[in-house]
Structures are given as structure tokens and as C-alpha cells.
Amino acid sequence: MADEVRRAVTGGRAGGEPANGAALASFxxxxxxxxATGVFVLLNEAGVFVAPTLYGPAxxxxxxxxxxxxxxxxxxxxxxxxxxxxxxxxxRAYLATLLLIxxxxxxxxxxxxxxx
Length: 116
Hints:
Layout: H1 2-10, H2 21-45, H3 60-83, H4 90-106, H5 110-113
């Protein structure tokens, strides 16, 4: 019984390390989604891309965030498909996620827009 549980958790790998690819795919996809939000804001402020208003009281932010959610979902599904059942070194994925989130947040601040 214990061997069956171990094989289920580790994906049958001999090393015994549990697969973490699916979890890290969700982390990295969150970073990509945050960056997408920042990019859509910058494109909107530069006048290159104007997202449609999907909910009147929220204005264009409803369209920008909806597009960012679509990017996040696409990134998550792609990365999940590539990484599920694999063991990935978490350090690089965490660092990339933090950098992407930081850049995404930075791109949403008005002082950054004035640099365009």
C-alpha cells in the first residue's frame, strides 16, 4: 500500500521527489498574467491599444484586466501541459515569477507612463 501511494505522489520516478511542475506552472503563469496587466496598461496609455469597456462603471480597466486574465489562463494551461508530472528546480521559477510580478506592478504606475 505504501509503495502505491509513493508511486502516485512521485509519478513513479525512482528518485522519490514529488512532481512540482504543475504547481510551479501556476506560479509562473501568475507572473505572466501580472506582466500582461502592466503591458496592457502601458499600451493603453501610449495610445497603441484601447481595450473595450466591458463594464461601464469600471471603464477600460475592465477590458484590460479581462485580456490579462486570458493571457494568464493561456500561460497556465500551456505551462501546466508542459510541466505536469515533472520535477522543476523551484528557485528559477520563483525568481522569474517575482520579477514578472514586479515588472507588471511597476508598469501600472503613472510615473512609468510619463516615460513613454
